[in-house]
Amino acid sequence: MGRVQDKVVFITGAARGQGRAHALRLAGEGADIIAVDICEDIASNSYPLARQEDLAETAKLVEKLGRRIVTRKADVRDPAALRAAVAEGVAEFGRLDAVVAQAGISPLGPEQSAQAFLDAVTVDFNGVVHAVDAALPHLPDGGVIVATGSLAGLASATTDNPALGPGGLGYSFAKRTVASFVHDLATVLAPRRIRVNAVHPGNCNTDMLNSDAMYRAFRPDLTDPTREDALVSFPATSAMGNPYVEPEDVADAVLFLISDESRWVTGAQLRVDSGGYLRKRPQLPTF
Ligand SMILES: NC(=O)c1ccc[n+]([C@@H]2O[C@H](COP(=O)([O-])OP(=O)(O)OC[C@H]3O[C@@H](n4cnc5c(N)ncnc54)[C@H](O)[C@@H]3O)[C@@H](O)[C@H]2O)c1
Fold this sequence. Notes:
By secondary structure, this protein is α/β, with parallel strands linked by helices. Helix content is about 45%, strand content about 15%. Strands 3-2-1-4-5-6-7 form a seven-stranded parallel sheet, sandwiched between helices. Helix 1 (about 15-30) packs parallel to helix 2 (about 50-65). Bound molecules: nicotinamide-adenine-dinucleotide.
């Protein structure tokens, strides 16, 4: 028996990065997956998003683990597309137990317009609401909702730095709002024992972090920094000296939150940030 044996989990942004890691970790523990991804770029986001082949690769890897997967190309800004994808997945698998709302963009750059602010908010926050909205009618009592926030939503002096442009502000705003949404939604759904939790990664070793805009954010002293240059500064957001966590580290947290091991855990803001929050928000010495 796996830790999430025969559960069906809907994951947004599952073509690569953390979304793919969640799909594989959950499938490895017995889950079937409904996976969506935009599979095309968003103009304000300077690094490319996933492609249809990436989503197909996630599907191949899940099936290699002996589990089933339904994939759909869908933009989390489009509630109807998400509802259709979930409905098709539920028709195939007969049930839905959990949703991981985690598709995201990070449209950083001082050259960006206000559109970058709106894109960050509509993908990184509205997209979470739309994923929950699509899943909720199918979730039984005892179902699970996990949303991905960020250290950037919990602490200031991260992407809210004006030098990172309106998209950075939008990213922080969206992630802060995800944390708040999770808190209040957990309260609303507790009577049905539907658990709602957030995971908040610090730097994570995916395409979002490994992008030119992010290298510039970490090395504002250089005009054209490389990954090697940025690696020196990545540990600034960690208390443990590591430059980043791996997608699989976040997937372990997501697996715990979807499994019955966390059956009385709801409203949690689970940081997978190498203590980055501790550096940014030291507690007042009240003890
Ligand atoms: N990488 C980091 O350092 C980091 C840190 C904290 C939080 N996060 C968050 O983790 C989550 C996963 O990001 P990642 O690190 O795996 O980056 P990633 O860029 O590798 O993956 C994001 C995925 O979401 C998809 N996506 C983007 N916009 C979409 C949309 N509108 N509709 C559907 N799919 C869309 C992309 O195509 C991609 O497959 C995001 O919410 C991100 O904000 C990342």
